[in-house]
Amino acid sequence: MEINPGMNTDIENETAIETAIEAELDLNADMLPAKLTPREKRDLQKAQLRPLANRRPELYEEDEFSSEEYEAMMEMYNGTLASIEEGEIVKSRVLEIRENLVVLDIGFKSEGTIPLEEFKDMPDLKVGDEVEVLLEHLEDMEGSVVLSKKKADFMRVWERIRVAYESDMPVEGTLVKKIKGGVVVDLMGVDAFLPGSQIALRRVPNIDELLGQKYEFKIIKLNKRRRNIVVSRRVILETERAGKREKLMKELAKDQVRKGVVKNITDFGAFIDLGGVDGLLHITDMSWGRISHPSEMVQIGMELEIKVLDIDWERERISLGLKQLQAYPWKDVAEKFPVGTRVNGKVVSITNYGAFIELEPGIEGLVHISEMSWTRNVRHPSKLVSIGEAIEAVVLKVDPTEEKISLGMKQTEQDPWMVLPAKYPVGTRLNGKVRNLTSFGAFVEIEPGIDGLIHISDMSWTKRVQHPSEVVKKGDAVDVVILNIDAENKRISLGLKQASEDPWLRIGETYPVGTELPGTVARLMDKGVVVDVGNDIEGFVPLSHLNISGAQVNSSADVAWEGMAMNVRINEVDPIHRRIVLGVVDIPEGQERPAEPSKVHTEDEDNAPIPADLDAAVDEE
């Protein structure tokens, strides 16, 4: 091949020009401002390229390219030098769709590939489609462009989230799952954290019921480096409530009837959403009747028509009523349930003092414990009735003003006390069981539920009984005599000693005056001592006859004690007053006085009175 010498010269000149262009580009690059980005530097270098390239116009044939064609060619050349930055979202074109890869062209010297699974949101993807992707690296180790659609999608979503955060705009999200302290929310495919305190205006009892629901949220915290997003629904609700509250303050009025939706239920009532502001429907304002829990009347989500009872805007409290829209049940109650009427009802409540009976919804009557039985001493109403039991009663009193009805259960039967005087005339002998002992006597059951009292003074003809246990024991079967029946006050007096012959009728024959016999001091009295001489016979030794030495005795405790033995003489027998007067003959020697002095009784203590209220006395005992 023959080489033209002139050609070598041209090549040398062209090489020199290219070397000069490169040198000037490098020089200009060094002179560029330090604060320019790589893209800005590259664009500036391209602008400087054109005049340098025009230094050799002789390299182009003038008849081959016009100046306009030359300018168009330069523009096309400059387009091929468009800068591409790593970490930017760029547009790409689908070249090929393989089994698990998508081949994309971004206008660079080589293509890039992305796994097909990143295109799940584009099921209709086809060759030629334009897709935005993230340019991660211009070249990997194999010289290929590294692209990612998933990251590009995330960056676009994050940008939308950032804009919403900075502009304080709400975003829509879905509650996905419950975690410690709150809930995970899906915001356009990105996880955000919703604290438990920011879910609603009040504590949500069951968060699981909200999962899967879509709501609007405000982004209250954003950290891109840690990809941390915190959202709040409460902020939006508070804003809405403030607007609705302002509107309701103008519309809402006391005694107004409005519609509301049950928002929450507690043990004491239900919260009703009136359209942005909640009101409380207390359990006592739900029904005129008795209910044990608000859920018996309302359910969450139920729409109700309620009445505004009271408004306190300062404390943000609105009291609502449901029963106030129903007819007042106590109206004309006296005509419905006249005194003396027999009624049927259900036991709805039991207290220590009685049982409440529901006669109809909203109307209850009280059976006092004293009106439950004619004969039984009822300690607690639960001994006779139980919750839910149906009973029959008689109306005793009606007070519509106080909303009270007094009922009686025992009045449904004949009062057995009214027939007792005829059934058991005074003097009737009966056999009964000792049911209870008190300090003043013993109660004996003469028929089921009816007891009579044996006073201690009616237990023995001859002995002064200090306590009933000296004569009878609980559970003993004894013969008694009816002494008196007071049907009105429900009292029966019984006599134990009256069931046997009175020994005082022949006491003088058994113990003639002057008889000497041994005895034992039973008790000390303030005026002498009582001595037991046997056979349940007691005699009395006055203070003046107590000391055989003849010296004056000021107190019986000075010379005697309970259990002391002494020989006595019968000085007087008085059958009418049932009294035997004794005198001391001598006191056996060798007796030791106890360290604890014996108690000195008075005449009043020796004659125990019958209490005015026997039932109360029995309960106290």
What does this structure look like?
The protein is α+β, with helices and mostly antiparallel strands and 621 residues long. It is 19% helix and 35% strand. It contains 10 helices and 31 strands. The strands form 6 sheets. Strands 26, 27, 28, 29, 30 and 31 form a 6-stranded mixed β-sheet that branches. The chain has a 5-stranded mixed β-barrel with strand order 1-2-3-5-4. The chain has a 5-stranded antiparallel β-sheet with strand order 8-7-6-9-10. Strand 9 and strand 10 form a beta hairpin. Helix 1 runs antiparallel to helix 2. The longest helix has 27 residues. The N and C termini lie far apart (146 Å). 19% of the residues are buried. The N terminus and C terminus are likely disordered.
What descriptive keywords fit this protein?
six-stranded mixed beta sheet; elongated; five-stranded mixed beta barrel; alpha+beta
Structural class: alpha+beta
Q: What is the number of helices?
A: 10
The profile of the biggest β sheet is: 6 strands, mixed
- In helices, the fraction of residues equals 10-25%
What integer is the average pLDDT? 79
**pLDDT below 50 for ≥5 consecutive residues: which ranges?**
1-32, 52-63, 608-621
Ordered list of secondary-structure elements with their pairings:
Blueprint: H1 5-31, H2 38-53, H3 67-79, E1 89-97, E2 101-105, E3 112-115, E4 130-137, E5 145-148, H4 149-167, E6 171-179, E7 182-187, E8 190-195, E9 214-223, E10 228-232, H5 234-251, E11 257-265, E12 269-273, E13 278-282, E14 303-312, E15 317-321, H6 333-336, E16 342-350, E17 354-360, E18 363-368, E19 390-399, E20 404-408, H7 420-423, E21 429-437, E22 441-447, E23 450-455, E24 477-486, E25 491-495, H8 507-510, E26 516-525, E27 528-534, E28 537-542, E29 565-574, E30 579-586, E31 600-601, H9 603-606, H10 614-620
Parallel strand pairs: 3-5, 13-15, 18-20, 23-25, 26-31
Antiparallel strand pairs: 1-2, 1-4, 2-3, 4-5, 6-7, 6-9, 7-8, 9-10, 11-12, 11-14, 12-13, 14-15, 16-17, 16-19, 17-18, 19-20, 21-22, 21-24, 22-23, 24-25, 26-27, 26-29, 27-28, 29-30
Helix pairs in contact: 1-2
